[in-house]
Amino acid sequence: MRTSLPSGTPAELARPSGAADGPPPDRGLVVIPDIMGLRPLFDAHCQRLADALGATVVAVELWPDHLDEPLPWRLEHVGDLVDERVLGDVAAAADLTRASQVSVLGFCMGGMYTLKAAGTGRFHRAAPFYGMIRIPEQWRSATQGEPLDALARPGACPVLAVVGTADPWTPPEDVAALEAAGAAVVRYEGADHGFVHDPDRPAHRADDAADAWRRVEAFLFG
After folding, report:
1. Which of 41, 51, 40 is nearest to 14 (CA)?
2. DSSP 8-state code for residue 184
3. pTM over 0.90
4. Max Cα distance, the chain (Å)
5. Has residue 95 got a pLDDT over 70?
6. Collapsed DSSP state (helix, strand, coil) of residue 102
7. Contact of 124 with 157, CB cutoff 8 Å
8. C-alpha distance from residue 73 to each of 9, 25, 68, 179, 180 (Å)
């Protein structure tokens, strides 16, 4: 169901089917969408993950003030996003789960923010799907911190990253740096950007997506 964080940012909240009348699960999961933000695709992901993991799942909107902007505009304005605001909403989403153990996952630009969230000390585990490991040149700004710097902070949580070897947003040298920072990485040979989370994308690879989901779901609360 749609709700709002204390900041007013929209969020999607899902609980395991049939659990509405009982106590809230002690597991929580925050989902950070791709650059296009909340939409029915992520509503469905939240409910499926809530049922699969027995967790309260909350997805956050990354663009609360620009909900109707198209992809080209968003690609040009990622540098305008402010880490403090985005990560504040991510932490508020974790609080909204009311769980003692909360993990985080995200996709594409949301995967980049998942790496940053891993360094906040708020999360049990983090699973970025093809998140940018270094800020792309066109997105760099005073409000955008480097994901690798976040992973070096005290209290950073374990990370399992999912990447494709044909993804230009996660070049091999960046993936190697991510591993050197302590993250575990699962590489999918020949997979391009966005091959897991959206079956309508040309890059989608059903078998690899199923394997990636299996690995991540086993990792999140291990």
Report:
1. 51
2. E
3. yes
4. 49
5. yes
6. strand
7. yes
8. 20, 38, 10, 32, 34
- The residue ranges of DSSP E strands in the chain, in sequence order, are 2-4, 10-14, 27-32, 56-60, 101-107, 126-129, 160-164, 184-188
- Which residues lie below 8 Å from residue 40, measured CB to CB, with a gap of 6+? none
Neighbours of 186 (CB within 10 A): 16
What's the token pair of residue 202? Answer: 């040309």
Closest CA to 112 of 69, 68, 78, 67: 78
Overall number of domains in the chain = 1
Number of continuous H segments (helices) and E segments (strands) in the chain: 7, 8
Sequence-distant (≥ 6) Cβ neighbours of residue 44 within 8 angstroms: none
Mean pLDDT (the chain) is 97
Q: What angle do CA 179, 160, 166 make, to 5 degrees?
A: 70
Contact 74, 27 (CB under 8 A): no
Would you tell me how many other CB atoms lie within 10 Å of the CB of residue 99? Answer: 19
pLDDT bracket for residue 205 (50, 70, 90)? very high
CATH at residue 145: 3.40.50.1820
Please give the backbone phi and psi of residue 117, each rounded to the nearest 5 degrees, phi first.
Answer: -65, -30
Tell me if residue 218 falls in helix, strand or coil: helix
Mean pLDDT of the 92-121 span: 98
Residue with tokens 């291990």: 222
Rounded distance between C-alpha atoms, residue 89 and residue 145, angstroms = 16
Domain encompassing residue 214:
2-219
